[in-house]
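for the recovery benchmark. tokens below, seq after
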């Protein structure tokens, strides 16, 4: 018997969704930051074994929309919920589930389970759940994984949707663009809000060194200088961290050039959203 199916990973922003997908897959599929609203797209993390394939759908955190990008993100969440074989709703174990969150969970379609995350934290809250996990220590992951595989539709034939060599549906270009965004979010202070997008302008693998050119888009003129930093120091740091990731991913030397561009209020412009891949 073969098992194949889709699992949506839903939850408030910062609940630990991307961390759990990465921990279950064992590869860096989705970027993680301490900041809210990190994930913007639905990103697939694929678990492969001879007799099963499970497609985990990482989603943007559920939040109230302030701009067109937010609305697209919430549309991504809704589309992830429909037609999956199981929903994992993740709730941060160090925060209480307020009434709004409880109701949101109750309104999700079946089959669904409530997963308490970050159980390695000291300030754990006491609320009922089906599974308790920590992506940091690995606690509860095997139990959760076995439960997921068990819940997937069974078939005599191997009807998997993805080549078993793949652990995500995203391209190397996408993963590197996201890594740049992650490192920028982690290195920059709170002055730069979530108005950053990254576009890969050039990806040249022809010679033995891979040449990548990327532009970081900011939404205000004064943010440009902050991203570049004094004497270009900030941009250099973002570049260094990303190059290390890209070289490991590609198993090749990488030359990474970063540029910064202003696109005022791009999160509310349809054309910009499309140009930046949202
Ligand atoms: N202590 C602890 N922290 C965790 C754990 N999992 C995630 N975190 C932290 O929680 C923060 C948010 O993690 P993410 O995985 O990006 O959360 P997310 O739900 O994908 O967030 P959005 O994409 O913004 O919706 C990061 O700072 C993580 O390091 C965990 O198991 N233990
Ligand atoms: Mg995320």
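predicted aa per position
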């Amino acid at each position: 018997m073969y098992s194949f199916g889709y699992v949506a990973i839903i939850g408030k922003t910062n609940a630990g969704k991307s961390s759990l997908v990465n921990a279950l897959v064992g590869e860096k599929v989705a970027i993680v930051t301490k900041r809210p609203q990190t994930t913007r797209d639905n990103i697939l993390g694929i678990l492969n074994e001879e007799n099963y394939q499970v497609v985990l759908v990482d989603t943007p955190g559920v939040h109230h929309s302030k701009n067109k990008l937010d609305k697209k993100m919430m549309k991504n969440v809704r589309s992830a919920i429909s037609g999956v074989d199981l929903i994992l709703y993740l709730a941060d174990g160090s925060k209480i589930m307020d009434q709004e969150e409880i109701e949101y969970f109750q309104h999700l379609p079946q089959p669904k389970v409530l997963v308490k995350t970050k159980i390695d934290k000291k300030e754990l809250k006491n609320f009922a759940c089906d599974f308790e996990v920590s992506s940091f220590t690995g606690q509860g992951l095997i139990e959760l994984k076995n439960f997921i595989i068990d819940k997937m539709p069974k078939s005599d034939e191997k009807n998997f949707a993805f080549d078993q060599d793949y652990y995500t549906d995203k391209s190397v270009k996408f993963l590197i663009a996201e890594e740049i965004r992650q490192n920028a979010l982690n290195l920059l202070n709170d002055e730069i809000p979530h108005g950053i997008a990254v576009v890969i302008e050039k990806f040249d693998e022809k010679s033995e060194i891979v040449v990548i050119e990327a532009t970081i888009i900011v939404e205000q003129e004064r943010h440009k200088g902050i991203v570049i930093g004094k004497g270009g120091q900030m941009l250099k740091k973002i570049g260094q961290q990303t190059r290390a990731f890209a070289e490991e991913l590609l198993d090749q030397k990488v030359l990474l050039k970063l540029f910064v561009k202003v696109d005022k209020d791009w999160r509310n412009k349809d054309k910009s959203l499309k140009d930046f891949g949202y």
